[in-house]
Amino acid sequence: DQQVKQNSPSLSVQEGRISILNCDYTNSMFDYFLWYKKYPAEGPTFLISISSIKDKNEDGRFTVFLNKSAKHLSLHIVPSQPGDSAVYFCAASVGSNTGKLIFGQGTTLQVKP
Amino acid sequence: DTGVSQNPRHKITKRGQNVTFRCDPISEHNRLYWYRQTLGQGPEFLTYFQNEAQLEKSRLLSDRFSAERPKGSFSTLEIQRTEQGDSAMYLCASSPLKNIQYFGAGTRLSVL
What we know:
The complex is a heterodimer. By secondary structure, chain A is mainly β. Chain A is built from no helices and eleven strands.
């Protein structure tokens, strides 16, 4: 069963506009969430995380929102830049100090100049 | 730069052969993880170590797979009697005792 789902395989956005990437989860035990970015031929790189005690975390152009009641999180990128074009994965874990991460399938973001 | 290093980057093998991958984590990171990623999917957890102890194994890790981390430093992942379904990208990650994991570039395995 897919415990973390990214239902949009791809997203195309104009440079300078907002990119919104969505992620849903089913396991109510998840309480720590992360977003990773992946370029071709590279491993995933950490972007931003959020604990379930918060509903928002911001780092520069990146903001993650968490809606626990809906079991939904989103990543906002403002303003979007062509260098943001990559595959974005959301991941979840039980606790911030545990082992495995459960990843979604990924969303490919294309930012057009 | 002392990021996570994985070798080889690519491995082509014939079905039934054994293969071994190596991962060198970021120094001083206690935890080391192995994931597998197939086309169009996110990474799937295989196993992880804290220092030299293997703390969790996924049911994806059949008895043909074995991972070691001697002396809590580098790790190896061996696949015996490879099958075509083993073709995937094998990712290694390391972390200190918090959950932000730093990934290597992966080893792409092709089983012919």
